[in-house]
Design goal:
Blueprint lengths: L1 H15 L5 H20 L12 H18 L5 H24 L7 H5 L7 H17 L13 H9 L1
Length: 159
C-alpha cells in the first residue's frame, strides 16, 4: 500500500526534476500525492476531497509563495526562505484554528494532523526534490541526430 501512496509521487518527482525547479517539483509531488490519496481513500472515487486536504495549506501554498517570491519578486535565498516559513506558519495556525476552534500559535501541528507521522510525505518529497535537482545538474542526455529540431541544425550550420 505504501508503494501506491509514495511511489507515484516520487516517480513524478524524479521525472519532474529534469524539467522543473526544486519548489515546482515539490508542488508536483504534493499534487500527485494528494490526488493519489483522494483516489485510494475515497469510497466514491470523488476528487472533491482533494481540495480540502491539509497538505494544500501546509505544503502547496508556501511552495507557491516561494516560487512567486523567487521569480517575480526577486527575493534572495534568505528572504525567500523567510517568506516560505512565514506563509507556512500563518497558514498552519489558521488551519489549526479552523480545525480545533482554538488559537494554537505554538502547537499548531497537533491541531492539523493526528500525529507527526503525517509529516513524513512532505519531508520525503523535499528530499527527492533536492536530490533530483542536484542530479539534474549531472545528467547528460545523449540524443540521436534524428531527434534534433530544424532550428538546432540551422544553429549548428551557422557556426
Amino acid at each position: 500500500m505504501e508503494l501506491l501512496i509514495y511511489g507515484f509521487p516520487i516517480f513524478a518527482g524524479i521525472i519532474g526534476s529534469r524539467y522543473l525547479g526544486r519548489l515546482a517539483n515539490f508542488c508536483l509531488m504534493i499534487v500527485v500525492f494528494e490526488l493519489d490519496m483522494a483516489l485510494i481513500f475515497s469510497g466514491q472515487n470523488r476528487i472533491d476531497s482533494f481540495i480540502f486536504m491539509p497538505y494544500n495549506v501546509v505544503c502547496m501554498i508556501p511552495a507557491v509563495a516561494g516560487i512567486i517570491g523567487d521569480k517575480y519578486l526577486g527575493l534572495r535565498k534568505l528572504a525567500n526562505t523567510c517568506l516560505i516559513i512565514g506563509v507556512f506558519y500563518i497558514g498552519s495556525v489558521l488551519l489549526a484554528f479552523r480545525n480545533r476552534g482554538k488559537f494554537l500559535p505554538l502547537s499548531f501541528l497537533t491541531g492539523i494532523f493526528v500525529s507527526a507521522g503525517a509529516l513524513v510525505p512532505p519531508l520525503l518529497f523535499i528530499l527527492v526534490a533536492l536530490l533530483g535537482y542536484r542530479l539534474r545538474l549531472q545528467w547528460h542526455v545523449v540524443e540521436e541526430p534524428e531527434t534534433y529540431s530544424i532550428r538546432d541544425r540551422m544553429n549548428e550550420n551557422s557556426h
